[in-house]
Write a structure and sequence with these properties.
mainly alpha, three-stranded antiparallel beta sheet, globular
């Protein structure tokens, strides 16, 4: 029996994920590599996004190249998220709980949930909007809002990169690399709640950095906006506090260092900091509980004690896909959200695509593998960034990394660690998707180093940057079938599961 808290299960037997699903259309062995022609066409557009804009930046057409590249990246992102959204007409992973919880909000049915309510309220909001539209299928009604929010996520990250650097190429690289992350793609295609946590958290950071460019009452508006979205992130899951901790560490590091002159702190900085990081988030978080408490009649503080006790009592190995925090940057234990096989001649269940296995078994798999090459490169970029920050304190290296770039690296690493290392103190079962926030910050670090590579006058630096972008693109296409749940032959599936721990 599956438990609503992060997919915890009492059944420890086997590796087959819950609510697994299967297939239809005829599919012989060789075509079952897992990519429909239309999806392959969409995905190949990414190659153009990777390479076409670089000359534009070098020739001074930065704004045009950025707009063209981001438009293509957003179209690709939206196409992959909305394509065949009701492909599996059955709950995928924790959808079986979150969809039911969303229904309970719409019907006023009391229930217990191990997380704050905002993520399920968002799903309920999406369901309520389209429930009267006849051409929208039931499963698309559950999932469309996730797809819409996920489509915008690359733009949010690109916006943060530009707020930090005022460099179009860095911003575009960050947005494109995020669009090439398969884990975020999976979270965007199903009625799950992690996406809302990260979306709200990064929007909060966009407002926080934007506030330094404002003056007077406009600055207060941006500050309050940051606090609203930080409160929203925490109201999805408590680990949204990592986005608050990251900004606190950033503010401390910058305020008491030689870099403080770069940022326009302005008058009343500490009051603004308290508003954006404490007061406003606390108010927003509390307000999001009103619909839930109105239905259940629970006491706010008693319910929080119950939720805390629930997480404290959850064992570290309560699920076959539990993993420890130190495994996430190395992609040692991804999660299978969905797994189903269809044997030759077997008629697939109604909840699967209409494909019949012809001569060989077909596998449908949805994995949070993400893009292993991108994650590994991001991890390496984070490590190198830490080294660069430490080395920049020496005179010989200070000139190599300008103050503005040191500020960027400090912000990235402070938030990377703030969203990752606190999990070392948590004893309950953890999952690789808890690393997604840090993963995006590692992508920001990778984009920064790639931008330096493309800006370099040394040809081998540029070639290395091009090679990395090419490898990330190829890896995204290679693992795309297990992000979209496309039909795979047994060999095609095994070829994508490079390590036994991935299965």
């Amino acid at each position: 029996m599956w438990d609503p808290g992060d997919g915890i299960t009492e059944n420890m037997g086997g590796y087959k994920p819950p609510n697994s699903v299967g297939i239809r259309k005829t599919c012989s062995l060789s075509p079952c590599i897992g990519i429909d022609a239309e999806v392959l066409f969409i995905a190949h557009c990414s190659l153009f996004v990777d390479m076409a804009f670089f000359r534009g930046f070098d020739r001074g057409r930065s704004r045009f190249s950025w707009a063209a590249g981001m438009a293509i990246a957003l179209l690709l992102s939206a196409a992959l998220r909305f394509w065949d959204l009701d492909r599996f007409s059955t709950p995928v992973f924790d959808e079986s709980y979150y969809i039911e919880f969303a229904r309970n909000y719409l019907t006023g049915t009391p229930f217990f949930d191990a997380h704050p309510p905002l993520g399920k309220l968002a799903i309920a909001f999406g369901m309520a909007i389209v429930q009267k539209i006849s051409f929208v299928s039931t499963w698309s009604a559950y999932r469309w809002l996730n797809a819409a929010v996920g489509s915008l996520f690359p733009l949010v990250v690109a916006g943060i990169a530009f707020q930090l650097s005022h460099r179009y190429r860095y911003s575009l690289l960050a947005g494109i690399l995020v669009a090439f992350d398969g884990s975020l793609l999976v979270e965007s295609r199903y009625a799950l709640i992690n996406l809302y946590l990260f979306f709200f958290g990064f929007v909060a950071h966009y407002f926080w950095w934007g506030s330094f460019k404002q003056r007077g009452w406009r600055r207060w508006l941006w500050t309050i906006g940051s606090g609203i979205f930080l409160g929203a992130a925490i109201a999805v899951k408590w680990n949204g506090l990592g986005f608050v901790l990251g900004l606190v560490l950033t503010a401390i590091a910058l305020r008491f260092s030689s870099l403080k002159s770069i940022v326009n702190w302005g008058r009343g900085f500490y009051l603004q900091l308290a508003f954006s990081l404490v007061f406003v988030p606390a108010i927003v978080y509390s307000l999001t509980w009103i619909p839930h408490l109105a239905i259940t009649g629970d006491n706010f503080f008693d319910l929080h004690q119950t939720i805390l006790s629930y997480h404290q009592q959850t064992e570290a190995d309560a699920h076959p896909y539990c993993s420890r925090w130190y495994a996430w940057p190395l992609v040692l234990r991804p999660i299978a959200y969905f797994y189903e096989t269809v044997s030759p001649g077997e008629s697939p269940p109604e909840y699967l695509p209409d494909i019949v296995a012809d001569r060989a078994t077909i596998i449908y798999d949805i994995h949070t593998l993400g893009n292993p090459i991108l994650i590994w490169m991001g991890t390496l970029a984070a490590i190198v960034s830490i080294g660069a920050i430490l080395a920049s304190k020496t005179r010989s290296m200070r000139a190599a990394i300008p103050d503005r770039d040191r500020l960027i690296l400090i912000y990235i690493i402070a938030n990377y660690l703030a969203n990752w290392l606190p999990w070392a103190l948590v004893s309950r079962c953890q999952f690789s998707y808890h690393y997604l926030g840090s993963q995006v910050f590692s992508i920001l670090a990778l984009a920064w180093w790639l931008d330096r590579g493309f800006s370099s006058t040394k040809i081998h630096h540029r070639l290395i940057a091009i090679a990395v972008v090419f490898l990330v693109t190829v890896a995204f296409l290679f693992w795309l079938p297990v992000s979209l749940g496309l039909p795979l032959s047994e060999m095609g599936f095994r070829n994508r599961m490079w390590f036994r721990s991935w299965v």
